[in-house]
Amino acid sequence: MVLPHFLVYIKPNNLGKTRLGLTVGKNQGGAVQRNRTKRLLREFFRRSKGKLPPSRDIIIIALKGSDPLTYHQVFKELTPLLA
Length: 83
Hints:
The structure is a single chain. Helix 1 links the parallel strand 2 and strand 3. The protein contains two helices and three strands, in the order ββαβα. Helix 1 (31-48) packs across helix 2 (71-78). It has one domain: 2-Layer Sandwich (Ribosomal Protein S5, domain 2). The chain has helices at residues 31-48, 71-78; strands at 6-12, 19-24, 56-62. The protein is α+β, with helices and mostly antiparallel strands.
């Protein structure tokens, strides 16, 4: 799934739980910006874990330009994953 600031892959797994994988490249800026983006994505996952499909591996790759986003912008952009 291609979103404006993220590339998302969803794959089934046999573990019975949903897992999250994150990739934020150096094109996002320094370590502070990359870690902030990862924190926002983890917070979305934490708050939405019960609404996400079960037994899936969700891999989110942050694209260039995703570093200035707020949590609400991240939530709005990733909301289609909850369906």
